[in-house]
């Protein structure tokens, strides 16, 4: 929960984690660039209706594609976000706050989708383990693991009445 008196961007005075603390500066902590990255936007964490001080976003161009770099408490992530040529112009048309919150929405959608897919796949493998449908095939230098299809239960044959 953010206790800043007004919306604050990391690197500015005004950040407060507890109401009784004096305002101070939340440090700017950007994700690392890789060789070949061309930095287009650097959006440090901030608040303003939502506490997002721990997320720092950077948009870079790499080999003609846009990538979103994210640093948060769990580390760094890199997402390819370039889908069409107008995307670069769309981001250029946004002010810093709008761009930050748009990047935040893109990242959150990606994170939620990744978590949901991981949870579904974990559930699928867990159920296959419970049903004893996991097949392991050892090869010379590898192992193949697969899930066997569920057996289709046939309804009991109807007995003819005499």
Number of domains: 1
Mean pLDDT: 91
Order the strands across the largest sheet as they lie in space: 3-6-7-8
Largest sheet: 4 strands, antiparallel
- What is the percent of helical residues? 25-40%
Question: What low-confidence regions span 5 or more consecutive residues with pLDDT below 50?
Answer: none
H and E order: EEEEEEEEHHEE
Shape: elongated
Beta-strand content bin: 25-35%
Q: Give the tally of β-strands.
A: 10
N-end to C-end Cα span = 76 Å
Number of helices: 2
Q: Structural class from helices and strands?
A: alpha+beta
What's the SSE blueprint?
Elements: E1 13-15, E2 24-25, E3 38-43, E4 46-47, E5 51-52, E6 56-62, E7 65-72, E8 75-80, H1 87-92, H2 96-130, E9 134-138, E10 143-147
Antiparallel strand pairs: 1-2, 3-6, 4-5, 6-7, 7-8, 9-10
Features:
162 residues, 10 strands, two-stranded antiparallel sheet, 28% strand, single chain, alpha+beta, 2 helices, 25% helix, 4-stranded antiparallel beta sheet
């Amino acid at each position: 929960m953010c206790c800043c008196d007004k919306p604050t961007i990391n690197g500015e005075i005004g950040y407060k984690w507890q109401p009784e603390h004096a305002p101070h500066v939340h440090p700017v902590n950007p994700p690392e660039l890789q060789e070949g990255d061309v930095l287009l936007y650097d959006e440090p964490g901030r608040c303003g209706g939502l506490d997002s001080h721990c997320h720092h976003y950077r948009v870079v161009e790499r080999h003609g594609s846009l990538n979103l770099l994210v640093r948060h408490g769990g580390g760094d992530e890199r997402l390819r976000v370039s889908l069409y040529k107008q995307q670069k112009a769309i981001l250029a048309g946004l002010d810093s706050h709008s761009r930050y919150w748009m990047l935040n929405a893109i990242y959150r959608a990606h994170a939620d989708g990744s978590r949901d897919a991981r949870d579904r796949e974990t559930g699928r493998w867990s159920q296959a383990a419970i049903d004893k449908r996991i097949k392991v095939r050892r090869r010379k230098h590898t192992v193949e693991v697969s899930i066997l299809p569920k057996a289709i239960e046939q309804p009991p044959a109807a007995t003819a009445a005499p």
